[in-house]
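Teaching assistant here, posting this on the class forum so everyone can see the example we discussed in section. The complex has two components, and the goal was to see what a joint structure prediction looks like when all of them are supplied at once.
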Amino acid sequence: MRPDNTTNHEVGLPISEVIKTASKKQEQRRWLLLSPALILLLLAASGPLLIVLVYSFLTPGDYSGVIWELSLDGWIQVIWQRDIFTGSIALSDAHLRILLRSIKLSFLTTILTLIMGFPTAYFIATRSKKRRSLWLFLITIPFWTNLLIRTFAIMEVVRNEGILNALLLALNVIDQPIQILYTDFAILAGMLYVFLPLMVLPIYSSMERFDFNLVEAGYDLYATRWRTMRRIILPIIRPGIVAGSILVFVPSLGAYVTPRILGGGKSMMLGNLIELQFGQGNNWPLGASLSFFLLALTMIFLLLYVRLTSKSAKSHV
Amino acid sequence: MKQQRSEIAIRIEDITKIYGEGRGKVIALQDVSIDIPENEFFTLLGPSGCGKTTLLRLIAGFEHPTKGKIHLYGKDITAYPPYKRKVNTVFQNYALFPHMTVAENIAFGLEMLGKPKKETDETVNEMLTLVKMEDLKNRQISQISGGQQQRVALARALAPKPRVLLLDEPLSALDQKLRKEMQIELKRLQSETGITFVFVTHDQEEALTMSNRIAVLNSGKVLQIGTPREIYKQPSERFVADFIGETNFLKAEILGCANGVASLTLPSGKTVETNVQKGFSPEGTVNIVIRPEHATVVEDPAESLLQGRLINAVYFGTDMRYHIELESGETFTVRIQNNPDDKTSTQFLGTEVCIGLHKNAVQILKD
């Protein structure tokens, strides 16, 4: 922007020029408003990410940290392992299993929270205004308690001597405690519990704006309940479903606390594997590579998902 | 007789609708029975909360009656869900699908009925022509104006060729000029398609100008059913007379009633004769109504039927309204059409004037 602009338009510039100047000023002001967030992002996200990226190409140090020596071992070890004696490379069963478990559990969590969250959101959105805020309040109550405490509470419920097993034993449904804790099932249950509100809230917010007259219009025009749902309700509240799915899937894939406590050391997910490399594993380059691998994985799934949902929405119409 | 019965499009039989229970219960409709013949423009008229929209929703199937039956061309459809009834609705807020184009909205009902693609396309084009929206076929709903949305809503509801079209105050969101246009448009569509229209409105003028017949509702009950002329000229109850048009209410004494003609004494002591409906023989003190335009100011005291003092004269462009305080203390309005060389009448304010009545100006109410 030219410094003499303000004086210029007072002497009478063509109107298009004045508008351009004004909008330029406005744009500048917008950037100014954005700057605190941008600075924070640069310092707290992009900077550390860059460091992690650099570390992933270095050699692990003897006890911790890295030696500044270029090596691709970190990246190779994401899914391959080098035999200690022969030096030959083979696919790493342990890593692949963890990878697959992470993807499987994240998918299941997303789908199950969607199946449970959609009717919940529908229910809340169709209540009276006063009732709605009460239900929303109830949905957010779990957020008031620390995640760690909530997860330990689940542990207390599902462990062998826990409430659930005790109840089943007392009712003679089983004669031996079922091993639930430290299984994939326990992780899934924990993640469902943690992430359900993140699915309900965005779906609710797009459903709240939904005009339920449209449902009547659908019925009136010979659409059955199911077809009204598929052709009218779902396409219109799709943004809420997409947002909810992303909000659940992305943190699920990198979940750490829940699998750590409910899966123990047995059932690990990617987040735990990464933590292991920076802790006991003493392999920072591998941890860094895994972190970037997780990032890439998340992005690929997101892209696929957005592509898929927008396409199917178009073919519906 | 038998042939006439088969032409009844909608038969509403003894319908009662109650919302809620116990002390909180609301009676929306009570013992309502209406027959609507085929190819009629039928209007449900009444103030808000009178039950007219509830009745429409019962016909559409969005609500179910507490008691009574609804027949569509002789078939009992009371228990049918909306998507199995061959009736379509034009909603008050249009309820167009925002994620579809104009053409897709119109095609929706046809698609749901499983019509072949080619037939659907043809009907959609036909409907677009009918409502003069051919050029906006591929627009999104958010890209068209309120009046255009109204047309799309009509086309969408007409496209599946319903046996009855239900219209829930469809013109209430439009401005005055557009509303007048759409009134004519709706009339045209009704006669062109030959579909029975059931039209809900609280606007008495709209009802009078558009309908073949009108049912006036209040507090969940049907007060009177008749042609616009009958409703206006022979209101049976005080509410109907008051709700439709301007009216003067007076009390009168019946002297006698024979051969469909009643003679009665007006508050002024003068006697007039007037026609009464068949089978109605009023007696004693009755309520009567006189429309302002059925009265006039006369100069000859011999022709005078009511007298009073002129307290106000209001110029309305097409006519003058004279407010006259009668000897009995009531205010009586007389409406006289203006002519090209009318003069101000304010000079007569405060003077005594004589009121004459046209033949059959007096209508006797049943309540």
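For the discussion questions: Residues 249 and 325 of chain B are 13 Å apart (CA to CA). The first helix of chain B runs from residue 2 to 6. Think about how each of these relates to the inputs above.
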